[in-house]
Write a structure and sequence with these properties.
With 997 residues, the chain is an alpha/beta fold. The chain contains 37 helices and 19 strands. β2 (364-375) and β3 form a beta hairpin. The chain starts with a helix and ends with a helix. The mean pLDDT is 93.
């Protein structure tokens, strides 16, 4: 018979193997949306991603990417596999954590001690293995953890770091009496140091580790000893978060500035002096530990050193940045910019313990910390970070309702009865904390994992019963993400929790601390606003990890409940293990269809299609995240259209990014920007206010840019603070066009030559011009039509600056041309972008890829479905344009293609589909048009009926979308003369629209 140790290892690796197979089978083969494209690109070439970076992840990702052996199409799946294997090892460590804790309970030896020599009976061993397998597999197939396992993000590896340090601490606890046991503590410190280069969530496990140490080293723990342990552990977390991570580089930066500016030494000598002093202090600390024969001090010094060794992965950031790679966010090439990068200063701050409430008005702006840049042989202050001052009566303790953003104010009101211009009460403040931040943004996510999830729409709630969707909107009822666990994981976990508390209170307290700090403590620290761009459940994987321990121990609780019924230990262990395995069994069967991404190519195809929309050597303005990161992946990894320069609009508000845009990148020449760094450095021309000058009815763009570069007094205004700033005197801009040269260049299609204008005229419609807008104006003035300039069609229309009359729709992007679109309606925004039918037909029908969009077995969540909706809009625009030209044959081909590559059964009809109805009727597809109208009207009716009585405030976007759909159907039905369907749609629209007035 195998020993307990060998069985523990064998079963653990079998659980690992099962999790690995599942994660690899459901792995996404390309770069997912959000940060994944950026992380894959930065791993492949060791580039510099957004702050604070993840150098440990990038280094390991680079190693995995090398296994592609030159096949760049395999890079993404290999880096994704890094997350899959990180998740598998997390499951393995969790299994061993549960079995270590379960062994104490089964052998009736609670607390902290060495139980390695105790050999359980076969029945006891089977029960312990069953507990480990049930708990580990339940976590493996939990919603948030499984999601993290399928993509190249840091959260899977972060979970691995957490699991590893908890497992190592329990290994130490079994060996604490050995003379060399402190080596386990040093190893834990190294893992914590490495984890800093992945994500900081791992640090929140330190308080739980502190109590394991305290309970193991103290014969008679006391309440005040526990309080001291918690305080010391919290201080350690704070020292790492503030003292080591940004603190040491900040101190090095202070040395650098002092010794360069004051002493007059060359650059970098301040850092060298700091390192010499720092190394000397470390040597002194070790010398003291040896001289005094102080084991604790020596262990602390070793742990500190190994945290630094792990943290040293961050050296890759300034090293790689100094080589000016193509992705180099924030340009952290020296110690001063590196500190700003680590502190995530570009994202701003949220009040935590004390600060302004949402109606607070600043009474002053003071100069905060300086930002230094090199100039000549000194460091000079580029700007002082502004610090807003508020009246004491406008501040409050624990400010949760703090953002004055109108969208945030609107969403605050969904949770608490706050009013604009009225200071929230502490009751309202705490109500928002408990209802939204803790209730909606933590407990809802927690219940998704262990109770059930209503669907994939943002704000989706908890599914307590079965997955039956009677009466629900089809989009919710038929969603593969509608998962019913019947609360079985929760029930089993609660049984394990109560059993653990009753039988081993100290270890239960440790697990509870892990749950608290990786869950509710994060909620308190993040202080989330009332609306997020997407669901944030991935943040709380540590809390679901802790609860999974109790799910495993719940098997022991079941065994105790059945003790009087089933006497034999082995039989009872087998029965409760099989019963317990029902829990992960339900979770994997319910979750498979919405976590299986094995055939999903949408994000990368959308990136390639957008790049292929552009003419050679183009400039493409995009939004951030989902609009940009897949483009970076396509260019950096697969080498797709590197002649196109992607310019991220939000980044164009920063000097470091503009500097990068003025350098060559692969096949793309530098952007045609005339401004020098002095004209756009941070703190200069960040925004230009509108200061009307009646004598200037319109502004010549070229002359305006010359005045900006000259810092002309003609543009300067003062607002009483003693500082002058540049402004713009009119919202009307114009750009003279050399029509003969433009016509000769051939950039305007022959059939549009009559639309060529001698002067482009537009209204920016803004009260202030941001730096990014100034850059776009500069490019228009400087480029002289030598390079094609595009906006992605997904860019916010407010960033178009009123240039829409001069847009030409080419695939998924709008090209700016000096030809005015006669069909554009400036009042309604209809017909945005002239449709050049030949070019559009080539792109949509022959060039673009739509892999998997016709497959109904592939799950596309809410975020993924936004991109096919854009495709449908472009198909519709092309079909309408062809019909206007009298080309019914090709219009019908376009319509057939649209529904062939994106059928309703795979990509449900969206709000763009009613646009197809008149065109379908025009080409003889009346039956399809009727089916669309009937299907979408019925869906809208069902959805509106549900949301009007269920959580309407949370799902107002869906409610408004249904109303817009009915409006589109009604208008389309009237256009084709179908009064019956038009009346039905309008009647429903009026029924649900009026009550919301």
């Amino acid at each position: 018979m195998r020993s307990y140790k060998s069985l523990n290892n064998l079963v653990g690796w079998l659980v690992f193997a099962l999790a690995t197979v599942v994660f690899l089978m459901t792995l996404e083969p390309t770069a997912s949306f959000w940060d994944c494209g950026e992380f894959i690109a930065c791993s492949y070439k060791l580039l510099v991603p957004h702050p604070p970076g993840a150098p440990t992840f990038l280094l390991l990702g680079r190693l995995f990417s090398m296994l592609s052996f030159g096949d760049v199409t395999k890079v993404s799946v290999l880096v994704n596999a890094l997350s899959a294997l990180s998740s598998s090892f997390t499951v393995l460590f969790l299994f061993w954590i549960i079995t270590m804790l379960a062994k104490k309970l089964v052998l009736h030896r609670p607390g902290m001690h060495d139980d390695r020599q105790l050999e359980p009976t076969f029945g006891q061993t089977l029960l312990i293995m069953g507990a480990g397998a049930v708990g580990a597999l339940a976590y493996a197939f939990s919603d948030s953890f499984w999601f993290n396992a399928e993509e190249a993000e840091v959260y899977a590896m972060s979970s691995l770091c957490t699991a590893a340090v908890v497992w190592l601490m329990l290994k130490w606890e079994n060996r604490a009496d050995e003379s060399d046991s402190d080596r386990w503590l040093v190893l834990i410190a190294y893992v914590i140091g490495l984890s800093i280069g992945v994500h900081l969530l791992n640090l929140l496990a330190i308080p739980a580790l502190g109590f394991i140490y305290y309970y193991r080293r103290t014969q008679n723990p006391t309440l005040w000893g526990g309080v001291a342990t918690l305080a010391i552990s919290s201080v350690i977390v704070g020292l790492i978060l503030a003292g080591i991570i940004p603190g040491l580089p900040t101190l090095a930066g202070a040395f650098e500035v002092f010794f360069v500016n004051t002493v007059g030494l060359p650059f970098n000598w301040g850092i060298i002096i700091f390192l010499l002093i720092f190394v000397g202090l470390i040597w002194f600390g070790f010398r003291q530990s040896f001289q005094r024969r102080n084991r604790l001090l020596n262990t602390v010094m070793l742990s500190f050193m190994f945290i630094l060794i792990g943290y040293s992965s961050y050296l890759i950031v300034p090293i790689r940045s100094s080589y000016h790679p193509t992705i180099n966010e924030n340009n952290p090439e020296d110690v001063l910019s590196f500190v700003s990068y680590l502190k995530r200063e570009q994202y701003g701050d949220r009040p935590l313990l004390y600060g302004p409430q949402l109606n607070a008005q600043p009474i002053a702006q003071t100069e905060g910390a300086p930002r230094y840049v090199r100039q000549g042989d000194k460091y000079v202050v580029a700007e002082y970070r502004p610090v807003l001052e508020y009246r004491p009566e406008d501040k409050m303790l624990i400010p949760r309702i703090y953002s004055p953003d109108p969208l945030h104010v609107y969403n605050y009101q969904k949770w608490v009865d706050v009013q604009k211009d009225v200071k929230p009460t502490m009751g309202q403040n705490l109500a928002f904390l408990f209802r939204y931040q803790m209730g909606h943004m933590f407990w809802r996510y927690f219940m998704w994992n262990y109770v059930g999830r209503e669907g994939d729409l943002q704000q989706s709630g908890i599914l307590w019963g079965s997955a039956d969707g009677n009466g629900l909107p089809e989009r919710v009822a038929d969603s593969p993400a509608r998962n019913a666990f019947f609360a079985l994981p929760l029930i089993l976990g609660l049984l394990g929790l109560f059993f653990h508390i009753r039988r081993d209170g100290r270890n239960a307290f440790v697990v509870g601390l892990l749950f608290l700090f990786t869950g509710l403590a994060i909620v308190f620290y993040l202080n989330q606003p009332p609306i997020e761009p997407r669901e944030r459940d991935y943040t709380f994987a540590g809390a679901t990890f802790a609860f999974a321990i109790w799910i495993g121990l719940g098997v022991l609780a079941l065994a105790e409940l059945l003790q009087s019924v089933i006497k034999a230990d082995t039989t009872r262990a087998g029965v409760v293990t099989l019963v317990g395995l029902v829990v992960p069994g339900i979770m994997v069967t319910q979750g498979w269809d919405d976590h299986d991404r094995s055939d999903r190519y949408l994000s990368v195809d959308s990136a390639k299609n957008l790049l292929n929309s552009c003419a050679p050597n183009a400039i493409l303005f995009t939004n951030g995240d989902n609009d940009t990161f897949p483009l970076w992946y396509a260019q950096e990894v697969e080498g797709i259209r590197t002649d196109v320069r992607v310019a991220v609009l939000s980044y164009l508000n920063t000097d470091w990014y503009i500097d990068q845009m003025k350098r060559r990148s692969y096949k793309s020449a530098p952007l045609p920007i005339s401004m020098e760094n002095k004209d756009y450095k941070q703190g200069t021309n960040d925004y230009l206010p509108y200061a009307e000058n009646p004598a200037v009815p319109a502004v010549d763009v070229r002359q305006f840019m010359q005045l900006v570069e000259a810092n002309s007094p003609l543009l300067q205004v003062s607002y009483g603070d003693g500082k002058n700033m540049l402004s713009f005197p009119s919202r009307n801009f114009y750009l003279p066009i050399d029509t003969a040269a433009v016509a000769k260049s051939g950039i305007v299609p022959a059939d549009r030559r009559k639309q060529l204008v001698p002067q482009m005229e537009w209204n920016v419609g803004k009260s202030a011009i941001e730096k990014k807008t100034l850059l776009i104006l500069d490019i228009l003035a400087t480029n002289n039509w030598e390079r094609p300039v595009y906006f992605s069609s997904t860019v916010d229309s407010r960033d178009f600056m009123g240039l829409q009359p001069y847009f030409q729709l080419e695939g998924m992007a709008y090209r700016i041309l000096p030809a005015r679109n006669p069909d554009y309606d400036e009042k309604t925004g209809a017909n945005e972008g002239f449709v050049e039918t030949g070019l559009m037909y080539e792109k949509l029908m022959k060039t673009f890829a739509y892999r998997g969009l016709d497959n109904p077995t592939i799950f596309y969540d809410e975020n993924n479905l936004r991109f096919p909706a854009n495709y449908r809009d472009k198909f519709s625009r092309l079909a309408d344009a062809l019909l206007m030209q009298g080309d019914k044959a090709r219009a019908k081909q376009v319509l057939n293609k649209a529904f062939e590559v994106m059928p309703d059964k795979a990509i449900p009809y969206d709000y763009y589909v009613p646009q197809f109805i008149p065109a379908l009727v025009a080409v003889g597809e009346q039956q399809r048009a009727n089916e669309i109208m009937d299907t979408m009207t019925s869906r809208a009716e069902r959805g509106l009926a549900y949301y009007s009585t269920h959580n309407q405030a949370l799902f107002d976007q869906e409610f408004q979308t249904y109303l817009a759909t009915l409006n589109g159907i009604g208008r389309a039905a009237e256009e084709i003369g179908d009064r019956k369907r038009a009346e039905r749609a309008i009647r429903l629209l009026q029924q649900y629209y009026n009550p919301r007035q």
